[in-house]
Specification:
With about 475 residues, the protein is of the alpha+beta class. The chain is globular and about 80 Å long. A hairpin with a 4-residue loop joins strand 6 and strand 7. It folds into 3 domains: about 160 residues, no CATH class; about 230 residues, Orthogonal Bundle (Hypothetical protein af1432), CATH 1.10.3210.10; about 80 residues, no CATH class.
Length: about 475
């Protein structure tokens, strides 16, 4: 009985170590790999990073002589404990996940024989592994074994199984869909209240936005797919929700805190509220309107500020929301509307929403026009105006999130097959390497309609197996691509 209590005590202590030091260890390993990529392996910066990591390993060894780090899906586990990370950790965690996957490394175990020199040896072998080879893991494991390290061991990445963890991933997909739909419903309630002249209470909307913030961290690709779907009806509520999703994606990449993300979510969601109090006949998406009508539409940023002031429950986010409402049609170079009497820098949130609002509006029917641009064309046009209309750093973060061919792009692959981009390219593979859901296969023994094609996949010689040839206009081909995104 005493042994059982002692064992339970050690397990509890180790689990606490994971909670406290787990994210430190993953961050330190990511930094060590990055430094070894940038510098010679014998550089003093690499040695110092390895020394720091040894300190954290030592804390774990106080409770266990050995332990393992596992990659399951897109998450790291230390033994049975998932390693949780903060907003500022995202880039390091995501980087290390992709580097592990490239080498098909599924587990890395440490024991008390490990030392600074062995950590550096591991990283050296890790970086020299022939990424793209079908046998990349076995080559890596063989070279690591030949190096003589005694304090490290590895295991190959296993294909996902229908385990409890897999069910958890499915739950995050469902949660993302619920969060997105719930925001649209709350926006519709808000707009109905504005139409009736009733001061709406938006506390429910704030809770819905918080759920959306959580889902951006847990399953962003699902939200990007949902934001790319274009359907008749609910044009404005969907536009508000889409701008919110895309803005939060940028905010995550800029390293905003959870508190800042919640404020950005509310401000981006309410950015166009002034449109709701304009005459309804002006909101049909017809861009060929008379000058007098255009002058009325240009009032909506100021009307948005006035409408936000009448809402209940905004509190501390009211100022951010009003600033974004007022500034979201201004350009970085001072042009746009409303006109400014004096030169003033746009707020960070306004510069983010300037990008996401324009992208979603130009690639959606019924916002700026009846026939939308393709996602790829809309993004290409925006990049030409970087530094003039749009903040260069923010637009760069947006492009990295969306890729050259954003989710929802109708594309022709090099083998003649047609498909719709369903997952954006991973920045580590190149921005033109998305995952595509096929609408029509190329025939023969290749994949058919409905199957996924990862254009970032390489053959045994390290050459990409297939590429996107170009994007197409689904309206010209009369193809409904959106059912492939649901």
């Amino acid at each position: 009985m005493a042994d059982e209590r002692k064992s339970a005590s050690f397990e509890e202590s180790f689990n606490q170590k994971v909670l406290v030091n787990g994210r430190l260890l993953i961050n330190q390993l990511a930094i060590l790999v990055k430094l070894a990529q940038m510098h010679d392996i014998k550089n003093v910066a690499v040695e110092k990073a390895a020394d720091v990591m040894m300190g954290t390993l030592g804390a774990f060894f106080e409770d266990s002589k050995s332990f393992a780090v596992y990659l399951v899906g897109d998450y790291f586990y230390i033994e049975d404990n998932r390693v949780k990370y903060n907003v500022e950790d995202f880039n390091n965690f995501d980087y290390l996940v992709q580097e592990f996957k490239k080498r098909k490394l599924g587990a890395l175990s440490f024991n008390t024989q490990v030392n600074t020199a062995e950590l550096i040896t591991f990283v050296s072998v890790f970086l020299k592994a022939g990424v793209g080879s079908d046998n990349v893991y076995h080559e890596f494991a063989r070279k690591l074994g030949a190096s003589g390290v005694a304090g490290l061991a590895t295991d190959e990445l296993k294909p996902p199984k229908a385990t409890e963890e897999f069910e958890k991933v499915l739950d995050t997909v469902k949660a993302a869909k619920r969060a997105y739909v719930r925001v649209i419903l709350r926006v519709k309630e808000l707009l109905d209240g504005v139409d009736r002249g009733q001061p709406a209470d938006i506390r429910k909307l704030k809770r819905s936005v918080q759920s959306l913030v959580d889902s951006v961290y847990r399953n962003e690709p699902v939200l990007l797919r949902l934001s790319a779907i274009r359907r008749e009806g609910d044009v404005l509520p969907r536009h508000y929700a889409n701008v919110c999703v895309l803005s939060l994606g940028i905010g995550k990449r800029l390293g905003l805190s959870k508190y800042q993300m919640a404020r950005l979510g509310m401000a981006s969601l309410l950015h166009d509220l002034g449109r709701q109090v304009l005459p309804k006949d002006l909101l049909d998406g017809d861009v060929d309107m008379e000058d007098s009508a255009w002058e009325i539409i240009k009032r909506h940023p100021r009307l948005g500020v006035q409408t936000i002031l009448r809402l209940k429950g905004l509190n501390e986010v009211a100022v951010s929301a009003m600033i974004v409402s007022y500034e979201h049609h201004r350009n970085l170079d001072g042009t746009g509307y409303p006109e400014q009497l004096e030169e003033k820098e746009m707020s960070l949130f306004s510069r983010i929403v300037r990008v996401t609002d324009n992208y979603d509006a130009t690639s959606s029917s019924g916002i700026y026009g009846k026939i939308p641009m393709t996602p790829e064309k809309a993004l290409s046009l925006m990049t030409k105006r970087a530094g003039q209309y749009y903040d260069q750093e923010i637009l760069s973060a947006f492009v990295k999130m969306m890729g050259v061919y954003p989710v929802g792009s109708f594309v022709l692959l090099a083998d003649g097959s047609l498909g719709v981009v369903s997952t954006p390219a991973r920045a580590s593979l190149g921005l033109d390497r998305p995952t595509v859901t096929l609408i029509r296969g190329a025939g023969g023994d290749g994949p058919g309609a409905g199957e996924l094609v990862d254009t970032g996949e390489k053959d045994g010689t390290g050459v990409y197996k297939i590429a996107v040839a170009r994007s197409l206009d689904p309206y010209q081909h009369r193809i409904n691509i959106y059912r492939y995104l649901v």
